[in-house]
Design a protein that fits this description.
The chain is mainly β and about 325 residues long. It contains 1 helix and 28 strands.
Length: about 325
């Protein structure tokens, strides 16, 4: 199929699939995907006093989902063929509204940009990345990129403008644009996580060497520098993320169960806060300073509150009481 026909079929595939609207009332910290319920749940309440809300009745079970850092939409896989759906989140309602990418096979990996403006979809069978921008109101395909230097990336990140994608697997990370694949590094122990900060600057976590790197200017020549290592208490990093203003970087340590906070603006010594839990990620929730640290399960959900107006703290959200409805 010609590139023109591929683009046309993808564009036609962005169509309305449903218009199911459900009310969400009261304060909430954000939405999370609950794999056991096959749907999204709101975290009901305020920071320090919250609980898991009831599963949202979307009408169809979700195979998987990732929620935008802006908390105004989610990308969900639905059905046996794993169509990608856009779940729109309004101030007082949630609607399952679109099928994205039409009849294309299910992507093998998805990533959403730091502000939620863009998303990237990787397809192993075609060694290609499709980028969509304009989320959540008017998502459209903005780029189609080839990825040949890294096979089956285990980590993926996309910039807010959708012009650069970072892809990594094993010891290598590349920056991908429509025009080229730019090698970033091939000397890692094993890439654990990738994240953009602001613009085309990014973070790279090495889970074997216990190191975190800062990448400046990923779309061009790129300058890679060591940001922190074992001496700064990096221990088995599983995820990296940045604050919404780009002044701080967060590293979730799988080995030590602690989060290391790096000051990108002043270079001050890192702060370390222990979770005493099994960290699996750093997913931004409400107001850009709250992060989810683990997956939804029958155990408590742990959150990092990194608000600049108070001391950094770790909080837990108790699981939803079995058989009881949580007022939303």
């Amino acid at each position: 199929m010609s590139a023109r026909k591929v683009w046309l079929s993808l564009l036609i595939g962005v169509g309305v699939a449903a218009s199911q609207t459900h009310a969400i009332r009261g304060p909430r910290l954000g939405l999370v995907f609950d794999p056991s319920a096959g749907t999204l749940r709101p975290i009901v309440g305020i920071a320090g006093s919250s609980t898991m809300g009831d599963p949202l009745p979307l009408g169809e079970p979700l195979e998987s989902a990732i929620v935008s850092p802006s908390q105004d939409y989610a990308l969900a896989m639905v059905g046996k063929d794993s169509e990608v759906r856009l779940v729109r989140v309004g101030p007082s309602n949630l609607t399952l509204v679109k099928v994205l990418l039409g009849p294309s096979p299910a992507p093998d990996r998805m990533a959403i940009s730091p502000s939620g403006a863009s998303a990237a979809f990787y397809y192993h069978n075609s060694s290609a990345i499709t980028v969509m921008t304009g989320f959540p109101v008017g998502p459209h395909i903005s780029a189609r990129m080839a990825l040949t230097r890294v096979s089956s990336p285990t980590a993926l990140a996309v910039s807010d403008d959708g012009k650069v994608v970072l892809a990594g697997a094993g010891n290598a990370v590349v920056a991908v644009t429509e025009a080229a694949e730019i090698p970033v590094t091939a000397t890692l122990g094993s890439v654990a996580s990738l994240a953009f900060i602001t613009g085309h600057d990014g973070l790279i976590a090495d889970g074997v060497k216990n190191e975190v790197y800062l990448l400046r200017g990923a779309a061009g020549a790129g300058i890679l520098s060591l940001l922190a290592g074992a001496g700064q208490q990096i221990a088995g990093p599983v995820s990296v993320a940045a604050s919404s203003d780009g002044r701080k970087a967060f590293v979730a340590n799988g080995t030590s169960g602690a989060v290391v906070i790096l000051d990108l603006a002043s270079g001050a010594p890192p702060a370390v806060i222990s979770c005493h839990c099994q960290l699996t990620g750093l997913d931004r929730l409400a107001d850009g300073s709250l992060f989810r640290l683990n997956e939804v399960s029958e155990r408590p959900l742990w959150l990092l509150d990194a608000s600049p107006t108070r001391a950094v703290r770790v909080m837990f959200v108790p699981p939803a009481p079995p058989g009881r409805s949580v007022r939303q």
